[in-house]
Amino acid sequence: MNKAYRYIGKATPRKDAVEIVTGKATFVGDIKLPNILHGKVLRSPYAHANIKKIDTTKAEKLPGVKAVLTYKNVPDWKGGMPAHVRFLDSKVRYVGDAVALAAGETEEICLEALGLIDVTYEQLPAVFDVEEAIKPGAPQLYTQFPGNVLPNRTPGFGPKSLEEIAMGDVEKGFSEADVVTEGTYFYENIPNPLTAEPPGAIAQWEDPDHLTIWSSAQNPYLDAVTLYLMTGRKVHVRLIGCQCGGSYGTRLMSWQLNLYAIALAKAARRPVKVCYTREEHFASYGLRLGTRIHGKVGMKKDGTVTAISGDWLIDTGFYSRTTQAQLAVGCGEAQLAVQCPNWALKPKVICTNRTASGIVRGFGGQELKCALIPLLAEAMEKAELDPLEFFKKNYVKPGGGFYWRDGNWWVSRAVDYTKAMEKGAEQFGWKEKWKGWLKPTSVNGPKRRGVGVGVHGNADVGEDVSEAYVRLDPGGTATLYSCFSEIGTGQRSNLCKMAAEVLQLPLENVLMAPPDTLLHPYEIGPFGSRGTYAIGGAVIAAAEEAKRKLFELSAPRLNADPGSLETEDGWIYVGGKPEARIPWRAGMGIDRTCLGYGRFEPDFTLPNFMMIFAEVEVDVETGKVELLRVLSATDIGQIIDPLTLNNQLHGCLGSAGLDSALFEETVLDRKSGRMLNANMIDYRWRTFSELPIFETVTLETPFPSHRFKAIGVGEIAPAPGPPAVLMAVSNAIGKRMHDYPVTPDKILQALKVE
After folding, report:
1. Are 745 and 623 in contact (CB under 8 A)?
2. How many CA atoms lie within 13 A of 447 on its CB side?
3. Is residue 691 part of a domain?
4. What is the CATH number for 341?
5. Helices marked H in 477-533 — which ranges?
6. What pLDDT score was predicted for residue 243?
7. Which residues pair with 51 in a beta bridge?
8. How far apart are CA 487 and CA 507, in angstroms?
9. Does the structure show a pLDDT above 50 at 30?
10. Is the previous residue joined to 82 through a cis bond, with omega within 30 degrees of 0?
11. For residue range 540-585, what is the model confidence (pLDDT) as tens digits?
12. Residue 151 and residue 161 in contact, taking contact as beta carbons nearer than 8 Å
């Protein structure tokens, strides 16, 4: 964009950079309270069992133990959607499910106490496959949900929350198609979005009605409201957010961990800290949803999609907290990628005896489209269509419509992303590299190269309500109040940049209050790429109101109309006359502050967009796949901070992102229900030496969003990657791959190599 800004669009140091690199940043593990205890969890060795007997006598008598809890002596606190699972229950439903809790003076004492608890289990048959789980006679996880099927509705999204994609007449659509294909595709490798710091929480009861929690949550306000509801709407919950050390979406909800700390603190009458080990983080925390699609696509030879139908089977694990919300968003995001008048896509949320699925960046849309795009690719192949041209034709354009998560019809006001697609294709060399479906770009002995492309977008950039305060002080400083924790992206620092730009203050003069629900207005949190538009919109509005109040107070001192005033570096002057200026303290007085309030209301009309081009090389003798090159293309309106954006885009590779197409997977033993690679050695991650060539194309076409005409793209960065890689591998070896990750054994099997 041509508009000259002081800070926006320019690389600036992060506000918390020095604290992080010097170790001053506060994580949950750094919190020290008087008389604090440690808490630990005894976990089930079985995937499915009833607890017939549990004896805690020996554990309770161990010196240093202050509380031992089981399902027998805890409140009936439940979670899930709808509320269906107790945080401690007489039935365990996966290997790692919580059986008992202990609080003690040290972690070692807690672990010793857990070892003294005598538990007698009645083992039950377990089920680990979604289609097996819904068969008659399958093991049942919950009596209230026969067939292991949960409701699709998301009450928080309104009375018409999206439960499926149903529109038009699919039979008519198929009859109008030139080609019709059917297939089954999987995205079931349940990758782990492993963050650098395992989750942790500290709970302290101030009195029977007031509770304070310190948590590694990215959205303290949402967690506080959730815990208030779960604990019976009788306890005032104050939640103080600590550094997350990264989130990838997973720190959006840690209700079970929080309830462990809360219950132990109540029983022990002392503050209790519960921090997961790395093994617990792997095996007992939320994973990505499992997706299986049995689908059918009708398409004309010009790329018009006439009908899509099928079953979307969703493996949510042993319970669901946000799966229905992910289902709703995923159904909306599918419509952004494929404009089709006739849909009959029916999701089904299914419980199985494995770790629960939870929030991961890509939130439903990545899971759905990682299976849907390969299904569409079969129809593209029959119609002899270039996938780039298909996506250019079908991605929602300005004026195009879609049903979003609330079940309402929305019309896009976003920019036309065609230019971003074309610019990305040109830089990648798509026309030269694309040779057709199931055809390699090049062959060099046993090594064959292939290319692929994927798309993703999300209208949740404008989701939910945000509120913010900005307070101006006489000394020429501003303090921003917006309640969310730093999750590794630098978003808190970027919001300070927005406020500094509005107020024309030196960046070091804009401060941001620590996340604390007692101090801040309502803020649901940074997710869905909403930080730039939704949260930023509230901050901008608050800064503008504070500035207006400052000018109203200062106008009499300058004998001017408030609308004629400007400010820079803590000084106020009449526009065009900077020589006649007064400091803020003279304008507002030394005994006053100016408080501005900003509020953002939900707006689903500005979906964002990301396209990823991928090139791979496959050794057909060994099955090894090497990712050679990745290029992402997008349009974000206005770059707020180029370094932050670059980190977000490059972050598409790991933590349940693009590399879930290649090697990131949680290996589940389908007999015992145990995770076989729940450690940092066996769980495969990309190292720095294995990084591919990574390029970005970022256009800046002004969006009708807020003052800076920007939207966010961080959350969607990884989602187009897996289907792009699957397409590239299929083209390289000349065989269509149907599931992830494309490990050497699957490659060799597809090639029928013994």
Report:
1. yes
2. 9
3. yes
4. 3.30.365.10
5. 491-503
6. 85
7. 121
8. 21
9. yes
10. yes
11. 999 999 999 999 999 999 999 999 999 999 999 999 998 889 999 9
12. no
Integer Cα distance of 414 and 393 in angstroms:
16
Number of domains in the chain: 3
pLDDT range class, residue 3, cuts 50, 70, 90 = low
Q: Where are the alpha helices (DSSP H) in 269-386?
A: 278-283, 323-337, 365-382
* Cα(359)–Cα(325) distance, integer angstroms: 10
DSSP of 199-256, one letter per residue?
-EEEEEEEETTEEEEEE--S-HHHHHHHHHHHTTS-SEEEEEE---S--TTGGG--HH
Same-domain check for residues 567 and 616 = no
Look at residue 192 and tell me whether its pLDDT is greater than 90. no
Whether 420 maps to a domain, the answer reads yes
- Rounded to an integer, the average pLDDT of 349-360 is 94
Instruction: Specify the pLDDT at position 509.
Output: 98
Token pair of 584, please? Answer: 């803020």
First and final CA of the chain: distance in angstroms?
Answer: 56
Residues 410 and 482 in one domain: no
Distance CA 275, CA 200 (A): 4
pTM over 0.85: yes
Spatial neighbors of 51 by CB under 8 A, at least 6 apart, are 70, 71, 90, 91, 92, 99, 119, 120, 121, 122
- The residue whose two tokens read 């990750």 is 741
- Residue 716 DSSP SS3: helix
Question: What pLDDT does 1 receive?
Answer: 45
Residue 404 confidence (pLDDT) = 97
Tell whether 418 and 511 lie within a shared domain. no
Whole-number pLDDT of residue 218:
87
Identify whether residues 409 and 429 lie together within a single domain: yes
Q: Which helix (H) or strand (E) holds 545?
A: helix 536-558
Write out the H or E segment, with its range, that includes residue 424: helix 418-428
462-491 as b/e: b if 16+ CB within 10 A: bbbebbbbbbbbbebbbbbbbbbbbbbbbb
Q: Is 178 within a domain?
A: no
- Burial of 137: CB neighbours in 10 Å, binned 0-12, 13-18, 19+: exposed
Q: pLDDT tens, 470-508? A: 999 999 999 999 998 888 888 999 999 999 999 999 999
The pLDDT of residue 247? 78
- What angle is formed at CA 244 by the lines to CA 242 and CA 250, rounded to 5 degrees? 125
Give pLDDT, residue 754.
Answer: 46
How much helix, strand and coil, in percent to the nearest 5, is found in the chain?
30, 25, 45
Q: How does residue 2 score in pLDDT terms, banded at 50, 70 and 90?
A: very low
Q: Which of 283, 304, 327 is the last residue of a domain?
A: 283
In DSSP notation, 584-598 reads HHHHH-TT--EEEEE
Residues 209-253: tens digit of each pLDDT: 999 999 988 889 999 999 999 999 999 999 999 888 787 877 777
Q: How far is the C-alpha of 273 from the C-alpha of 106, rounded, in Å?
A: 10
